[in-house]
Design goal:
The structure holds 2 protein chains of 2 kinds. By secondary structure, chain A is α/β, with parallel strands linked by helices. Helices cover about 50% and strands about 10% of the residues of chain A. Chain A is built from 32 helices and 20 strands. In chain A, the strands form 6 sheets. In chain A, strands 7-6-5-17-18 form a 5-stranded parallel β-sheet, with helices on both faces. Chain A has a 4-stranded mixed β-sheet with strand order 2-1-3-4. A 4-stranded antiparallel β-sheet of chain A has the order 9-8-13-14. The longest helix of chain A has about 30 residues, at about 635-665. By secondary structure, chain B is mainly alpha-helical. In chain B, strand 2 (about 30-35) and strand 3 form a beta hairpin. The two termini of chain B are about 30 Å apart. The chains are: A alpha/beta, B mainly alpha.
């Protein structure tokens, strides 16, 4: 059987979860199609998900598909389940549709979103608590649980929408959410975007009618107006007219930046890059660049913002590097610290501080936290069996041992962690260990070490998480990783190492040891701040007033979500703990991984030699930011995005708007007399701007970038439809119209320059210089769209913003940086993504195959003539071959580029 | 037809002797059945399925996993699509879809008469009467004749290129 699902279609979630549960009792081929795909031949309107059965029949109801999967695994239907499913279809679904629409399309307030579903949520909660069963239909999980969970998940996964008082609902929901099939389905369908993943789908749905006293109306509302009320338009116009006057005064720049009581104080950290590796593009997008966008955004919101980072300098790797280069570890750090700082400067990263961990402050703070942990009984002492390489005459640090992973059998597992299964490894558990330096087999020796007693701190950690997670913006992967570690139970963690290059351990008997970098590296954030200001405690011992955002790639989550919080919780010194842990997935290079040793991929210092400006790099890396799923850097795609999105869309619009002002109106913004069309555009832009804020407040950096491009698309359309270049030659009224359109367009360009600032700071500054945007407007982004360039405003000289990237140039770069050939990779057959055109063909062929199969079967049943049967069978085989061809290899890449 | 009347009619055609009492709930007047043992049941299709079991006619809910799922799908279709829409366009589309679905079928699940046919027929009755022009009425006629369906199924099946007759409930 074949299951058609779509990433942005609500029903796909329960269906995939149910299919996951039925694995083993059914062979299901899963195909991903667009949410508008017409899969069921007899239905006029698109319906996804759909299950096509082997008999040729279609199940197009989400509940029926789930029910079918459950029936296959031996479940029997009963009244109570039926009742829940009927209730889901008739009561819950309409309520949820309204809620999603308000949330995703209209961006309404939490209360308004909850309003339509409140009664339904309460109903579930009461039913659960009245019957005091863990599941809807009794002691065991049934299809009703999966269907309702799947319907509710996109809303309730955001804890803000799971009302505190509904305890039974909450625990039912959480029980289901952590199940493997459910987790996987949620990953696949929502891509960690929550309900926002439904946006493209919901935008096409009509606005839901108010639920109470639903009036019968035969008049379908006008499409354009469906999402904009008169009131919204009026509000957008009022805000626009207030103009520059409604800007608050600009907050004076402080040095040092310190938290202010009663204001929003945002402390942003980016994971500290290890000093002796030159960061590659994946490292850059994973932390420093992502954090930079948020820091810049935060400043545009006038939040009191401190953004810090620095190099992580202690540890064996540095010692070894020093040996290799014949320098001291300190010299190595000095040398590489500058390399890092230069790279980030080139990328225009707006650190308030870019420090380092080898400072007296680091020693002071680390030792203080350690002493506090020791006194409070959170440090254990134990003798450790450790790998020692006799040939190199030293204990081998984790990263200097390689071997076979004891959990998954991966050949190149590191001594501390397996790159494949992600499990932490104790180096002596590695099978076939090898010293990475000399490749000889190390021996096990014992040595005395200190341990952080994590099991003893586990309860505090859980309490803290329970308090912190609801309403926070931890990325889903960060939550999953942290939860799964807690589920497995924490173990004591060694915090000392037999090394010299590290923070000394202030304890008798440990004079020849230092702290393990993973114990003290995260304290680097604190010490770097302490090097920036003596008043560092106002940031770091101020949990009530400071919102701490920490950016990293997902491999760093355990240390920031568990180890760091445990350490400072145990120190009992009122430390500021992470409020929002923002973790990315991985960025690949072309089809593989970045690899320094194989010379594959682009590293930070090389990016500048490509001749491509830093802002283009920033744009493209942010456009493909591995947000919610892995993504890949591709030269071809970079060219495409530059030429289509930047050059043709954004650059084109901003340049045209400016050029019209220069050419037709002598560089002065013309008088604007808004007609309803213009007002509606104002409201549309305002809506998209609000959406942009909504996304960035949740640190959905990649998605928010799409809002910028959407607004400029609106703008291009607006110019195209109104043709100011023609009207300027017309009569008085036409000329006025040309003025209004030009004025509005150039104001949209001004707005875009501000929205663009976090992403492309240099381009943003260029636009603002060209338009001569007044300084306060450059540095503040409100939630309203204001007229910042009033009539009469004189703009500067307008020139093109972007350059076309050429194929030859990219091909040359691809060869220079190695890796991906341009060959398309064959996709796995079981879960292919089918393009829209290919899909139709496949669908047609599938129908043909089914029909032909029936003919053959009937002939066989009738014991027809052998030759006749053979002929029909041959036809069937040919059809099947065509089908396989169509499914297996997309015959040709889709023409043009995919827009979304 | 009010839900209670529809359920009473169903009881009768299932051969259930004692009439149940139904109440109605909320704005949509959802039927509620207070059973003697255990909690009440809410919802038209839920109660209908319950009555079918009471009458020991489980075959009306489908016999294979596929049929069972199909029956429930069309029951859901009845309460969400047929009852949910009231504009002319919607009903036109709905009848057109059903017609194209039923083109090569005798009943909603294929060859077996089920509860889905009964309830969809009840639900569509008002439109079909009003709009006799559309095809589904050939299916509708079949469903009308439901209590003595056998002969009708046979004639239709024969027309269908001699496919084995799957009409007799097992």
């Amino acid at each position: 059987m074949r299951l058609f699902v779509s990433e942005g279609a609500p029903g796909s979630l329960p269906v995939l979860a149910a299919a996951g549960r039925a694995r083993g009792s059914a062979e299901v081929l899963i195909s991903t199609v667009g949410p508008e795909e017409c899969v069921v031949p007899f239905l006029t309107r698109p319906k996804i998900p759909v299950l096509q059965l082997d008999s040729g029949n279609y199940l197009f109801s989400t509940s029926a598909i789930c029910r079918y999967f459950f029936l296959l695994s031996g479940w029997e239907q009963d009244d109570l389940t039926n009742q829940w499913l009927e209730w889901e279809a008739t009561e819950l679904q309409p309520a949820l549709s309204a809620a999603f629409y308000y949330l995703v399309v209209q961006g309404k307030k939490r209360e308004d979103v909850l309003d339509p579903v409140r009664r339904a949520l309460t109903h579930i909660d009461h039913s659960l608590s009245r019957r005091s069963c863990p599941f809807l239909a009794g002691e065991t999980e049934s299809v009703a649980d999966i269907v309702l969970w799947g319907a509710l998940y996109p809303l309730l996964q955001d804890p803000a929408y799971l009302p505190e008082e509904l305890g039974a609902l909450r625990s039912w929901f959480q029980t289901l959410s952590i199940q493997e099939p459910c987790q996987q389905a949620a990953e696949t369908v929502l891509k960690q975007q929550g309900a926002l993943a439904f946006r493209p789908y919901l935008q096409k749905q009509p606005q839901p009618s108010p639920l109470e006293g639903r009036a019968v109306s035969n008049e379908p509302e006008e499409e354009e107006l469906a999402t904009l009320s008169e009131e919204e338009i009026a509000m957008a116009v009022t805000a626009w007219e207030r103009g520059l006057g409604s800007l608050p005064t600009l907050r004076p720049q402080q040095n040092p930046v310190l938290p202010v009581a009663g204001e929003r104080n945002v402390l942003i950290t980016s994971a500290l890059p290890y000093v002796n590796n030159v960061p590659h593009l994946g490292n850059i997008i994973g932390c420093v660049l992502s954090a930079d966008v948020f820091a810049r955004y935060s400043r545009l919101r006038q939040w009191n913002t401190l953004y810090l980072c620095g190099t992580d300098e202690y540890g064996t790797a540095t010692e070894t590097k020093a040996m290799e280069e014949g320098l001291t570890p300190q010299q190595i750090c000095d040398k590489y610290h500058i390399i890092h700082a230069d790279i980030y400067r080139w990328f225009n990263i707006s650190f308030d501080i870019f420090g380092r961990t080898t400072t007296p402050q680091q020693t002071l703070i680390t030792q203080d936290i350690f002493q506090r942990l020791l006194v409070r009984g959170f440090v254990l002492q134990d003798t450790v069996e450790q790998l020692r390489c006799e040939r190199c005459a030293r204990f081998l640090a984790d990263r200097f041992v390689e071997g076979v992973c004891p959990f998954c059998g991966y050949e190149e597992a590191r001594g501390d962690q397996c790159d494949k299964c992600g499990k932490l490894i104790n180096a002596i558990e590695l099978k076939k260990p090898q010293c990475k330096v000399c490749r000889s087999c190390p021996v096990v020796k014992s040595s005395k070490h200190l341990f952080l007693d994590l099991p003893k701190l586990e309860k505090r950690l859980e309490e803290w998480l329970e308090k912190t997670l609801p309403g926070s913006d931890w990325t889903t992967n960060a939550q999953f990783i942290t939860r799964s570690w807690l589920r497995d139970g924490l173990k004591p963690r060694c915090i000392t190492r037999d090394l010299k290059w590290g923070t000394p351990v202030p304890l008798e008997g440990f004079e020849d040891k230092v702290f393990y970098v993973w114990f003290d590296a995260t304290f680097g954030y604190i010490s770097i701040t302490a090097n920036y200001t003596d008043e560092w405690e106002r940031w770091w011992k101020n949990p009530e007033q400071v919102d701490l955002y920490q950016f990293m790639a997902k491999d760093n989550v355990p240390f920031h979500g568990l180890v760091f919080p445990c350490s400072v919780l145990g120190a009992e010194d009122n430390y500021t703990l992470v409020k929002h842990l923002i973790a990315t997935e991985y960025l690949n290079y072309e089809d593989g991984k970045f690899s320094k040793s194989r010379g594959v991929g682009v590293f930070g210092d090389m990016a500048q030699d490509t001749g491509i400006p830093a802002d283009i790099w920033r744009f493209y890396l942010l456009y493909i930011r591995p947000e919610g799923q892995d993504s890949a850097f591709s030269w071809t795609d970079m060219l495409l995005k530059n030429n289509s999105e930047l050059l043709n869309n954004l650059g084109n619009f901003i340049n045209r708007a400016g050029m019209f002002v220069s050419k037709f109106f002598g560089g002065r913004v013309p008088e604007m007399v808004l007609i309803p069309d213009d007002q509606r555009l104002l409201a549309h832009v305002t809506m998209e701007l609000r959406h942009f804020h909504q996304l960035l407040e949740k640190v959905r950096i990649r998605d928010a970038l799409r809002s910028i491009l959407t607004i400029s698309r609106h703008g291009n359309q607006y110019i195209q439809v109104n043709e100011p270049w023609k009207r300027i030659k017309g009569n008085e009224a036409d000329r006025q119209r040309a003025g209004t359109v030009t004025g509005l367009a150039v104001n949209i360009a001004a707005l875009l320059s501000i929205m663009l600032q976090p992403y492309m700071p240099a381009v943003s500054a260029t636009i603002q210089a060209q338009l001569q945007l007044p300084p306060p407007a450059c540095n503040i982004l409100l939630t309203d769209f204001l007229c910042t360039l009033p009539a009469g405003h004189q703009i500067g000289t307008v020139s093109p913003l972007f350059q076309k990237l050429e194929n030859d140039q990219m091909e040359g770069l691809r060869q220079r940086f190695g890796g991906g050939q341009a060959k398309p990779s064959p996709k796995p057959a079981a879960a292919e993504t089918v393009t829209a055109t290919g899909q139709q063909q496949i669908h047609m062929l599938m129908n043909e195959v089914t029909k032909q199969g029936n003919i053959v079967r009937e002939l066989k049943a009738q014991k027809a003539d052998k030759n006749q049967v053979a002929a029909e069978v041959a036809k069937l085989l040919e059809l099947k071959k065509q089908l396989a061809l169509a499914e297996g290899k997309p015959t040709e890449p889709p023409k043009g580029k995919k827009k979304k | 037809m009010a839900a209670a009347a529809e359920l009473a009619l169903l009881e009768k055609s299932l051969g259930l002797s004692k009439g149940n009492k139904y109440s109605a709930q909320g704005e949509r007047q959802v039927p509620v059945l207070q059973t003697n043992h255990g909690p009440s049941l809410t919802g038209l299709t839920t109660i209908a399925a319950h009555l079918v079991k009471q009458a020991n006619k489980e075959y009306l809910l489908g016999s294979t996993a596929e049929e069972k799922a199909l029956v429930q799908q069309w029951l859901e279709y009845r309460v969400t699509q047929v009852d949910g829409h009231s504009s002319k366009d919607d009903i036109g589309t709905l009848l057109k879809d059903l017609n194209s679905y039923l083109e090569d079928k005798v009943y909603l699940t294929g060859y077996n008469f089920t509860l889905a046919d009964i309830l969809l027929y009840y639900g569509l009755h008002r439109f079909v009467v009003a709009q006799l022009v559309l095809e589904p009425n050939s299916w509708a006629k079949t469903a009308i004749g439901a209590p003595d369906t056998k002969s009708m199924i046979k004639t239709r099946s024969r027309r269908k290129r001699g496919r084995p007759n799957g009409s007799s409930p097992n």
